[in-house]
Amino acid sequence: MPQIDNPLADNTLRIILPGKLIDGVADKVQEGMAVAIQGSAIRWAGPASEAESLDSAGAPRETLHFPGGTLLAGLFDIHTHTNMPGDGRTGEQVNDDDNDEIRLLRSARNSTAAVASGVTTMCDCGSWGRTAFALKEGLAQGLVEGPRVLVSGPPLTVTGGHLWYMGGEADGLDAVRARVRYLIKQGADFIKIAASGGSTLTSDPYRASYSVAELTAIVEEAHNRGRSVLAHCRCTDAINAALDAGVDAILHCSFYDNDGSYRYDDKTAGRLAASEVWLNPTMGLGNANRTRLAKIKTERALTADEEVRLERSTSSGERSLAQFTALVKAGVKLVGGSDCGWSYYPFGDFQGEIMTLHAAGLSAIEAIHAGTRSPAAALGIDNIIGTVEAGKEADLLVVNGDPTQNMENLRDVAAVFKGGDRVATAKERAGAG
Fold it and tell me: What CATH superfamily is the domain 7-73+385-432?
């Protein structure tokens, strides 16, 4: 791996001079700006003409030039599963094939891939046992390289509900309250609820799993301890129950009726817009699956099963894009979360999810905000990260080109900083090999 200086070691004042800046505060791209970092924090941001006058307080100075690049806050993926391999295996298969030791090692590898791609913060939205808590502890001790990781631990789910095998089953008011308290005791940064079924075989994605009373109890316990609540909702009934309970974000947010038929619901859409709850579409996951199958089709004929899956995925993708395009017009708030690790979506391309938000109607800069400042707001840590402002943690990303002109530029990573520490990019790691 390339040798990269550690600014934490010598407190060097590093002045970054990009061609352009997206600071997450102004809703525009700025030119002629500079950002100074020292230690783990952003010390100053302002006109490049003023950068040389900054006092380093006796520490060494260094200037980093990226004349063709754009500087922005490090990416924040609000929805990942670090235990999962992203190789098409289902949750049941990973549950049967692997043990927690293997799952933890995979989490470490996935975390490294994430930070090398420009993700400086991510949420683990469901993992087995204590694996995500152990990952977080390993990151804090410097044993693992990766982003800041916020964890939920095993999601709350009804007996036999979605992701039950992770260990978070709880039924009834007393049990869900106790489970939330236990997770927070373990170190949960937020609470994840399987408010409907999902891909788990023993669950039903088209029906709400918890009653409104149970969901409300979960939200009360979490909010009372300063934790946000993210709810997996694959049907309209679950969406409305989650809104009734006051969750902070809804993951997937699919408008399916109890019989499995899709129907855009104007009343629910209106509620979502009025509530200002954050919505995480996870459309990039479907795109990753379709891209994989399309690539295989150029190399050989698809099997009958693959043809069915491609057709089904194409149809659901079109419905999802139309739904979120309509929701954006209705005034909802979208937040970026890839669901990577699941299905055929490996870690290292959260940018694909940001691009789907742009396709759904967000402007390029709005989509970038959805992958930087909005997740920080949803988790209540926007006072620490999410924008390029003095006093915040120096979690920064430099990409080549201007992503507001071409979103593909988000994938062309030139430099990554986490807490002021420069991290080798995926391209630098590949070159080192």
Answer: Urease, subunit C, domain 1 (2.30.40.10)
